[in-house]
Amino acid sequence: MNSIAVLSSYAGNIIWILLAFLVVLTIIVFIHEMGHYLVARWCGVKIEAFSIGFGKEITHRYDKHGTRWRLAWIPMGGYVKFAGDMNGASVPSQETLDAMSPEERDGAFHLKPLYQRAAVVAAGPIANFLLAIVIFASLFMIIGKVTHVARIDTVKPGSPAALAGFQPGDIVRKIDGSSITGLTDLRMAEQFNGGTKLDFEVERGGQLVKLSATPKMTDVKVSIGGTAQVGVLGLDTILWRSQVGAVQKGSAADEAGLQTGDLITSIDGVKVKTFNDLVKIVSPAAGKIMRVEFKRGSVELSTTITPKTATVTDAKGKVHKVGRFGIGNYLDDTAWTHKRFGPVDAVILGSKETYTVVYRTLKSVKDMFSGKQSPKQLGGMLMIAEVSGKAAERGVSDLMELIAFLSISIGLINLFPIPILDGGHLMFYAYEAIRGRPLGEKAQEIGFRIGLTLVLMLMIFATWNDLMRKVSQWVGTG
Question: Are 384 and 24 in contact (CB under 8 A)?
């Protein structure tokens, strides 16, 4: 019976991941291809097909312009096929172009002026970037932005931060002369500047202190499995301390005498720093007597608490029995700010967020080629599916953020100068603009074959990384 329950749970999880993956990928692909489609229509290009997915059709319909809108079984992308294309990759068919009537030639994509062709090709990635800006801006308007103060809680002995003179309680205000908005900026600065000296300005006891430190390239575990090499200073910042906020009346904590502001330091001899640490220890311990040590001001105290059983429902609607002390997070108003933005400011922030993701992506690609980052970090469709499922479990806002991040990544990758990708077409158009004539048909055909080979090899390599990452996880938990 237990085996059947486990298999049923596993199957349900797979279905959930697949559904989330299909939603994420379909939205991104549709917006990308819609960018090509709209600009092509504006340029008077006849569009033969608009496809979401490849392979055999699930369904299709024709619109009044004669475009075949199709949904196919292989959800690995999509394409817009223009009049005069040999295939969905927009490879020109000279035979088809030569056989066209004057009226048909007027709607042929490859016979349009160079600037129009370039605009149509660039419109796909641009649509991806615009989608990200719209999503980020919408989240900033509806949910707002939480900014955590870059306050240092602990400094790892012997770390670059310790050698530089950082101290607990320091608040980082500037990095290399530029003001930072909070903890996210600090983390990005150290992670993307491994081996590079950074100048800091920190607030310490109301005074500004200047420090210099060089983040050390270090292998760290990532949430999707495996490791990534990033810059590390050795600073620890705690967003949610293991401090008692509201105490529920009649709860285990109330009966034990805990008060708002008490800082829990250990449970049954296990040290806790964050509220998440506390939850992980208490959740599976309903009904168990636990020794709790805590600080009330500067006084160290201890007591025993028996977690009471509570019923919780997860994002998938599953009901679980867990242990609870009956306390909430302690909200330190000096540690973070929350603000919603108007449309103009939200769009500006959304654009900045999009630029940041582009920068981080390009930096990661550069580091892979330079050897700073391992190419094993590269993920494929399996990783996207897994991350999509996790984001969907956390909520709509997390799923929308993931769509924005992936939309940027896909838009950026499509701009790489690889034949068969949009960037490859733009590279050919740049040659045509400089030389005054298009690249020869034979050269283009060879280029597209090379590009297709590179893309397929990249997909295989990324999928292999995904499989090895999962094997590593299974072995690690087995």
Answer: yes
Alpha-carbon distances, residue 5 vs 14, 16, 283, 387, 399 (angstroms): 14, 16, 22, 24, 28
Domain ranges, ordered by start, for the chain: 10-43+112-142+392-477, 145-237+335-339, 244-329
Retrieve residue 316's tokens.
């998938």
Work out the number of other CB atoms within 10 angstroms of the CB of residue 79: 23
Number of CB atoms found within 10 A of residue 370's CB: 8
Rounded to a whole number, what is the largest CA-CA distance in the chain? 91
Between the two ends of the chain, the Cα-to-Cα distance in Å is 21
CA angle (433, 438, 444) in 5-degree steps: 125
Q: Are 49 and 68 in contact (CB under 8 A)?
A: yes
Give the helix, strand, coil percentages of the chain, each rounded to 5: 45, 25, 25
Task: Work out the angle between the directed axes of helices 343-370 and 396-414 (0-180°, nearest 10).
Answer: 60
**CATH topology for the 145-237+335-339 domain:** Pdz3 Domain (2.30.42)
What torsion do the CA atoms of 167, 173, 175, 180 make, to the nearest 10 degrees?
Answer: 130
Q: How many residues does the chain have?
A: 478
Summarised one tens digit per residue, pLDDT across range 369-420 is 776 666 766 777 777 777 777 777 778 888 899 899 999 999 999 999 998 8
C-alpha distances in angstroms, 64 versus 42, 45, 60, 355?
A: 16, 15, 14, 39
With beta carbons less than 8 A apart as the criterion, state whether 267 and 289 touch.
Answer: no
Contact criterion met (CB below 8 Å) for 282 and 324: yes
For 16-29, write each residue's pLDDT tens digit.
Answer: 777 888 888 899 99
Check: CB of residue 255 under 8 Å from CB of residue 337.
no
* Contact of 123 with 431, CB cutoff 8 Å: no
Instruction: Tell me the angle at which helices 2-42 and 396-414 cross, rounded to the nearest 10 degrees.
Output: 50
Cα 421 to Cα 139: distance, rounded to the nearest angstrom: 31
Fold agreement between 145-237+335-339 and 244-329 = yes
- In the predicted model, residues of the chain with pLDDT beneath 70 are 1-13, 86-94, 221-228, 239, 314-317, 331-334, 371-374, 376-377, 469-478
Residue with tokens 């994002």, as numbered in its chain: 315
pTM: 0.77
Residue 86 CA, distance from chain mean position: 35
Which string of DSSP letters, residue by residue, matches 53-74? EEEEEEEEEE-TT--EEEEEEE
Active-site positions read 33
CATH superfamily, domain at 244-329: PDZ domain (2.30.42.10)
